[in-house]
């Protein structure tokens, strides 16, 4: 996240960090470049992301990233938003997840369009 935000800022783009207070309390965020908006919870973070972002792009990450990916996909299925959702599959990072989603489609739990 730091590399992407730094590059965006260097090229004149606005950068907004939406940071749950638990991240700052545990020093999980390094130095930032841009504005910081501190929120109380991960859910509040996602609501703010939905408010400010036009496109939702998931970069490689762990449990919080996976939670956010599935939450925004669920919201799209419920027509809460119609924003594009992208997964940046750097060096095949999300290959296992994408295979799982293909399996879920094959098992007819969701449609290909989901």
Overall mean confidence score, pLDDT: 88
Low-confidence runs: none
Give, in order, the helices and strands: HEHEHEHEH
Query: Level of helix content?
Result: 40-55%
Proportion of strand residues: 5-15%
What does the main sheet amount to?
2 strands, parallel
Q: Gap between N and C termini, in Å?
A: 27 Å
Could you say which overall geometry the principal axes of the C-alpha atoms support? globular
Radius of gyration: 15 Å
Strand order of the largest sheet: 1-2
State the secondary-structure class.
alpha/beta
How many helices in DSSP terms? Answer: 5
Count every beta strand, where a strand is a DSSP E run of 2 or more residues: 4
Brief rundown of the structure:
The protein is about 45% helix and about 15% strand.
Structural write-up:
- With 114 residues, the protein is α/β, with parallel strands linked by helices.
- The chain contains five helices and four strands.
- The protein has helices at 2-10, 21-25, 42-52, 63-77, 95-106, and strands at residues 16-20, 35-39, 56-58, 85-87.
- The strands form two sheets. A two-stranded parallel ribbon has the order 1-2. A two-stranded parallel ribbon has the order 3-4.
- Helix 4 links the parallel strand 3 and strand 4 (85-87).
- The longest helix is centred in the middle third of the chain and has 15 residues, at 63-77.
- The chain is globular and about 45 Å long.
- The two termini are 27 Å apart.
- The mean pLDDT is 88.
Keywords:
two-stranded parallel sheet, alpha/beta, 114 residues
Q: Topology of this structure?
A:
Layout: H1 2-10, E1 16-20, H2 21-25, E2 35-39, H3 42-52, E3 56-58, H4 63-77, E4 85-87, H5 95-106
Parallel strand pairs: 1-2, 3-4
């Amino acid at each position: 996240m730091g590399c992407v935000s730094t590059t965006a800022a260097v090229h004149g783009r606005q950068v907004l960090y939406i940071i749950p207070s638990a991240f700052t309390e545990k020093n999980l965020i390094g130095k930032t470049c841009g504005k910081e908006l501190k929120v109380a919870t991960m859910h509040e973070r996602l609501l703010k992301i939905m408010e400010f972002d036009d496109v939702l792009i998931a970069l490689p990450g762990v449990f919080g990233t996976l939670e956010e990916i599935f939450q925004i996909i669920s919201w799209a299925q419920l027509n809460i938003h119609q924003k594009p959702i992208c997964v940046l599959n750097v060096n095949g990072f999300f290959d296992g997840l994408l295979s799982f989603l293909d399996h879920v489609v094959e098992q007819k739990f969701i449609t290909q369009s989901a």
